[in-house]
Amino acid sequence: GPAKVVNNGDTASVKVGNDAAYTLQTVENPVPEIPSKREIAPYVGNGVLGAVQVGDNVTYEITYKNYKTEAADVVITDKLDTHVTFVSASNGGTLANGVVTWTLKAVPADQVGTVTLTVKVLERAPRRSSTTATPPP
After folding, report:
1. Is the pLDDT reported for residue 96 higher than 60?
2. At 10, is the secondary structure helix, strand, or coil?
3. Is the pLDDT assigned to residue 9 strictly greater than 70?
4. Closest to 70 measured CA to CA, from 34, 120, 18, 5
5. CA torsion, points 119, 120, 124, 128, in degrees to nearest 10?
């Protein structure tokens, strides 16, 4: 299929307390074949930014909730796509071996929050032809 920068859903997960981690759905950002420069602002709501350019920063937001009746640690992990490089992460997120990890201690019961991850699209990101571009399935 067409090449994309992917924030892999199967490698992003949220774990609350000692429960099993749950995985998040995949977000894909196609990289057009023809280089062009434009401003990108994150769209609110659907989590999909659409086409991205080499050199662009892309910010992903991961939402978590402590669904327990008492405070619990929430651990969020996100494995970076090979075609991006880490720029920054909110809430003390740290990068090690290509994986960004947030460890949120004693999150109050029922609290909902978000963390953000910003990455930069690398020169080696595969292009996809604008003439054959189709939306991801």
Report:
1. yes
2. helix
3. no
4. 18
5. 90
Residue 42: both structure tokens together: 């994150």
- CA-to-CA distance for 33 and 102, rounded, in angstroms? 34
Q: What angle do CA 7, 8, 14 make, to 5 degrees?
A: 100
Which band of pLDDT confidence, cut at 50, 70 and 90, is reported for residue 37? very low
Q: Which of 16, 51, 23, 26 is nearest to 128 (CA)?
A: 51
Beta strands in the chain (DSSP E): 4-7, 12-16, 22-23, 27-30, 57-65, 72-79, 84-89, 94-96, 99-107, 112-121
| Contact indicator for 42, 61 with CB cutoff of 8 Å | yes
